[in-house]
C-alpha cells in the first residue's frame, strides 16, 4: 500500500466521491476496487462508479429533497454530480445519465489526478492506515464482510433490509386515527388506524392480489420469522394478520368507544414526529401497489410516502452505535465509513456520505476539526439520521426526504411552500457552514 496515502476500499459512488474530496484538498489517495477481478452479483461493468440498476439520480428540482441534496453537493464541488451533469440524458425534471459515459467520466477524471493510485484487488482484511475509508457498498464482498463482523460484532452488521413504509405525519387524516398504547400502558405513543371487519377482509384480499417484486437470484432471502413480509403473513390464513401486526387487543377507538376489528399501528420514526412507520409492514409489494393498497387504510387515504417498504440484500452497519458524527468508528477512529454501508440508501445519498467522509478525513490529516453540517441541511440531516438515529436496534436505511430535516417552528402551511422554505433555509445554513470551515471551492 502506498505510504502516506489515504486508503479507500470500494470504487463505487461513495469511494470515488471521497477520493476526489481528499485529492482536491491536496491529499494522496490509494483506492482499492475488486472489479474486474471479482464482481458482486449486481455489478457488471469494469469501470468505477457503476450505477447498478436505474440510470436516474432522481429529481433535479431544487425544492425537492433529492434536488436540494444535489444543490448542496454541487456547492461542495461533488465529482459525482459534475460527472452526472456532464453526461445527463433527457429525463424531464429528473437527473438521469448515460451510465457508460458517467462511469467512464468519473474513472478517467480520477486517473488523471497525480496523487491518485488505483489497485484492482479485493481487500479481505480491514487495512491498517491513517486514515482508511471503507466504502464497499450494499454488496460488500463476503470475505470483507466477515472481517467487519469480527471487528464490529455480528449484532452490528446487517445483511438484509426489511423495511416498512414511512409516511409523512402531516399527510395523515388525524380525524380517523387515534393515539394510544395497548391497554393504556405507558404514554399513548402509537397512532392507530382502525379497520372494520369488512375493511380488514378487503385489505387482506388486496395484499394477496397485489403485484410483488420478484427476488433477484442473489436475493434468495430466507425470511426471519420476526420480520416476515406482511403479504406472506396475509397468505398464512384469514386472520393471521388480525392476530399478528394488526391485532387490536388493548385498544379502544375513542370515536366509537369500541375495540376495532383490526388496527394498523404507526410509530414515530424521528423525535420531531414528522415521520411515522407502519409497524410490521415490511413488504415486497411493488411501489405503485404499496401506494394503492396502503391508501385503503382508514386515515391514510391521502398519505405521502417518505420511503416505500422493501426487503432486499443490503450490507450495512449499525451506525448510530458504531460511528461518531464524523463517520469515524468510535472504537478505532482511523477507520471511516462511507456510502450505503453507513445506512443511507440510494446513489445520491451514498455519494453524499462519501463526500462527507472525504472531507472529515481531510480535516483530520490537516490537524483541524470539521463540525458536522447543520441538520437543517440535506447533507447534515442524512448524517444526523444515521449517526444519531433514535431507532435503536431497529435502525433502518433512509433516503433523503424533507421529513428528516430539522423541523422549523411555523404554523401549518402548504406542502410546496414548506418545502421551498426548508430548501432556502438549508442553503443559507450550508453557506454559513462552508464559510466557517473555509470550504469555498
Ligand atoms: C441491486 C441493487 C440495485 C440498486 N438500485 C438502485 C437504484 O436504482 N437507484 C438508487 O438510487 N440506488 C440503488 N441501489 C442502492 C445504492 O444506492 C447503490 O447500490 C449505490 O451504488 C451504493 O453506493 P456505494 O458507493 O455505497 O456502493 P457501490 O456503488 O456498490 O460501490 C461499492 C464498490 O466496492 C467494491 N467492493 C466491494 N467489496 C470490496 C472489497 N472487499 N474490496 C474491494 N472492493 C470491493 C464493489 O465492487 C463496488 O464497486 C441499488 C442497490 C442494489 C444492491
Number of strands: 17
CATH superfamily of the largest domain: FAD/NAD(P)-binding domain
The outline comes out as globular
Sketch the topology as an H/E string, one letter per element.
EHEEHHEEHEEHEEEEHHHEEHEEHEEHHH
- Which structural class best describes the helix and strand composition? alpha+beta
Bound ligands, named by name, code or SMILES: flavin-adenine dinucleotide
CATH A-level architecture of the largest domain:
3-Layer(bba) Sandwich
Overall tally of structural domains: 2
How is the main sheet built? 6 strands, mixed
CATH domain topology of the largest domain = FAD/NAD(P)-binding domain
Cα distance spanning the termini:
30 Å
Task: Report the C-alpha radius of gyration, rounded.
Answer: 22 Å
For the record, the CATH class of the largest domain is Alpha Beta
Low-confidence stretches: none
List the strand order in the largest sheet: 6-2-1-7-17-16
Q: What is the count of helical runs?
A: 13
Strand content: 15-25%
Helix content: 25-40%
Average pLDDT metric? 92
Task: Please describe what this structure looks like.
With 441 residues, the protein is α+β, with helices and mostly antiparallel strands. It has two domains: 6-161 and 313-436, FAD/NAD(P)-binding domain, CATH 3.50.50.60; 166-308, Elongation Factor Tu (Ef-tu), domain 3. Helix content is 32%, strand content 17%. The protein is built from 13 helices and 17 strands. The protein has helices spanning 13-24, 65-75, 79-86, 99-111, 142-152, 197-209, 230-236, 240-243, 287-294, 319-322, 347-365, 378-388, 415-436, and strands at residues 6-9, 29-32, 56-59, 88-89, 94-97, 116-119, 132-134, 157-163, 166-168, 178-180, 190-195, 262-268, 275-278, 305-307, 310-317, 328-329, 332-337. The strands form four sheets. The chain has a six-stranded mixed beta sheet, covered by helices on one side. It has a six-stranded antiparallel beta sheet with strand order 10-11-12-13-9-14. Helix 1 packs parallel to helix 11 (347-365) and helix 2 (65-75) runs parallel beside helix 11. The two termini are 30 Å apart. It binds flavin-adenine dinucleotide (FAD). Flavin-adenine dinucleotide binds at residues 9-15, 32-35, 40, 42-43, 52-54, 122-123, 135-141, 144, 339-341, 345-347, 350.
Amino acid at each position: 500500500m502506498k505510504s502516506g496515502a489515504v486508503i479507500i476500499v470500494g470504487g463505487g459512488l461513495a469511494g470515488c466521491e471521497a477520493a476526489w474530496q481528499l485529492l482536491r484538498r491536496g491529499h494522496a489517495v490509494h483506492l482499492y476496487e475488486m472489479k474486474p477481478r471479482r464482481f458482486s452479483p449486481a455489478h457488471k461493468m469494469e469501470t468505477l462508479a457503476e450505477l447498478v440498476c436505474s440510470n436516474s439520480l432522481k429529481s433535479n428540482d431544487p425544492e425537492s429533497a433529492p434536488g436540494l441534496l444535489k444543490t448542496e453537493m454541487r456547492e461542495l464541488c461533488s465529482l459525482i454530480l459534475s460527472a452526472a451533469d456532464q453526461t445527463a440524458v433527457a429525463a424531464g425534471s429528473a437527473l438521469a445519465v448515460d451510465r457508460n459515459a458517467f462511469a467512464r467520466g468519473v474513472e478517467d477524471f480520477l486517473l488523471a489526478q497525480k496523487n491518485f493510485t488505483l489497485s484492482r484487488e479485493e481487500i479481505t482484511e480491514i487495512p491498517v492506515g491513517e486514515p482508511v475509508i471503507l466504502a464497499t457498498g450494499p454488496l460488500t464482498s463476503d470475505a470483507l464482510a466477515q472481517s467487519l463482523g469480527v471487528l464490529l460484532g455480528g449484532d452490528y452488521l446487517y445483511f438484509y433490509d426489511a423495511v416498512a413504509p414511512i409516511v409523512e405525519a402531516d399527510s395523515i387524516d388525524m380525524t380517523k386515527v387515534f393515539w394510544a398504547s395497548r391497554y393504556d400502558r405507558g404514554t399513548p405513543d402509537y397512532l392507530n388506524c382502525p379497520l372494520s371487519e369488512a375493511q380488514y377482509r378487503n385489505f387482506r384480499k388486496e395484499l394477496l392480489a397485489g403485484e410483488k417484486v420478484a427476488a433477484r437470484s442473489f436475493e434468495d432471502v430466507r425470511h426471519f420469522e420476526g420480520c416476515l413480509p406482511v403479504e406472506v403473513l396475509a397468505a398464512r390464513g384469514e386472520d393471521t394478520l388480525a392476530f399478528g401486526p394488526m391485532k387490536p387487543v388493548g385498544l379502544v377507538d375513542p370515536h366509537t368507544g369500541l375495540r376495532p376489528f383490526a388496527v394498523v399501528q404507526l410509530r414515530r420514526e424521528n423525535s420531531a414526529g414528522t415521520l411515522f412507520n407502519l409497524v410490521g409492514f415490511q413488504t415486497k409489494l411493488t411501489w405503485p401497489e404499496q401506494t394503492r393498497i396502503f391508501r385503503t387504510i382508514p386515515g391514510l387515504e391521502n398519505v405521502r410516502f417518505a420511503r416505500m417498504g422493501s426487503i432486499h440484500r443490503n450490507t450495512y452497519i449499525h451506525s448510530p452505535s458504531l460511528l461518531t458524527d464524523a463517520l469515524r468508528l468510535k472504537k478505532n477512529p482511523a477507520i471511516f465509513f462511507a456510502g450505503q454501508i453507513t445506512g443511507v440508501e440510494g446513489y445520491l445519498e451514498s455519494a453524499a456520505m462519501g463526500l462527507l467522509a472525504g472531507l472529515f478525513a481531510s480535516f483530520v490529516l490537516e490537524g483541524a476539526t470539521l463540525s458536522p453540517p447543520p441538520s437543517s441541511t440535506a447533507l447534515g440531516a442524512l448524517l444526523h439520521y444515521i449517526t444519531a438515529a433514535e431507532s435503536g436496534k431497529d435502525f433502518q436505511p433512509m433516503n433523503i426526504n424533507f421529513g428528516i430535516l430539522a423541523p422549523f417552528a411555523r404554523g401549518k402551511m402548504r406542502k410546496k411552500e414548506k418545502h421551498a422554505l426548508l430548501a432556502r433555509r438549508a442553503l443559507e445554513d450550508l453557506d454559513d457552514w462552508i464559510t466557517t470551515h473555509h470550504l469555498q471551492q
